[in-house]
Amino acid sequence: MEQNAAIYQDLERILVTKEEIATKVKELGKRITDDYSGKEPVLVCILKGAALFFSDLIREIDLPLTTDFMAISSYGSATKTSGVVRVLKDLDRDILGKDVIIVEDIVDTGVTLNYLRSMLVHRGAASIRIAALLDKTARRIVPDLQVDYVCFDIPDAFVVGYGLDYDQKYRNLPDIGVLSPKIYGE
Ligand code: IMP
């Protein structure tokens, strides 16, 4: 905590510690290993927020998987999603007939993942599942979005750390914390 002391001052409280994250990610890796036994899933990292979760998760999956990366942005203010999703970087490889696991940092309204899932369905993936580090179910506006794997259900608060940012900052915090509203001016 000490090397990040200045950044930690911007947090209201710590929500999930790095030890809790490591335990859950390990469990999830084991589940995916069991669920996809005999298969070669494609793990798709949604940049940038999921990068840390993704790199830890794939090392806990004992399967011959492949990886790909996608960057998207949703228009709107830094702390609220607008519902319009733009692809900034597409997948490098075709996913036709593949078992795809989308790895996302957080499901908030569900708009981003709903859009992504239907896009990948149209490309002919054999199956698509979603793995999310965090889920803010209270904020969901896409009620039928199925999030297959979730590490932590969290309350409705803006969180940063372990890959999640506010204005590109705080991604390097090892823990996940609630950002003080005074930082984003509410
Ligand atoms: P959704 O489309 O509303 O589900 O929003 C998902 C995206 O919004 C995530 O991939 C994040 O980039 C961003 N987001 C939502 N809530 C938070 C948060 O609490 N902290 C950081 N980013 C967030």
Quick overview:
The protein has 5 helices and 9 strands. With 186 residues, the protein is of the alpha/beta class.
Keywords:
5 helices; 186 residues; binds inosinic acid; single chain; 6-stranded mixed sheet; alpha/beta
Descriptive overview:
Helices cover about 25% and strands about 30% of the residues. It is an alpha/beta fold. It has a 6-stranded mixed sheet with strand order 4-3-2-5-6-7, with helices on both faces. It has a 3-stranded antiparallel sheet with strand order 1-9-8. Helix 3 (about 50-60) links the parallel strand 2 and strand 3. The chain is globular. The chain binds inosinic acid. Inosinic acid (IMP) binds near residues 104, 105 and 109. Inosinic acid binds near residues 106 and 164.
Could you give the topology of this structure?
Layout: H1 5-8, E1 11-16, H2 18-35, E2 42-47, H3 51-58, E3 66-74, E4 85-89, E5 99-107, H4 111-122, E6 127-135, E7 149-153, E8 159-160, E9 176-179, H5 181-184
Helix pairs in contact: 2-3
The chain binds inosinic acid.
Overall mean confidence score, pLDDT = 93
Q: Could you tell me the strand content as a percent range? A: 25-35%
Main pleated-sheet profile: 6 strands, mixed
Shape label: globular
- Helix count equals 5
Give the strand line-up of the largest sheet: 4-3-2-5-6-7
By helix and strand content, what is the structural category? alpha/beta
Helix-strand sequence: HEHEHEEEHEEEEH
Bound molecules: inosinic acid
- Total number of strands: 9
Q: From the alpha-carbon coordinates, what is the Rg to the nearest angstrom?
A: 16 Å
Low-confidence stretches: none
Helical percent range? 10-25%
How far do the termini sit from each other?
A: 26 Å
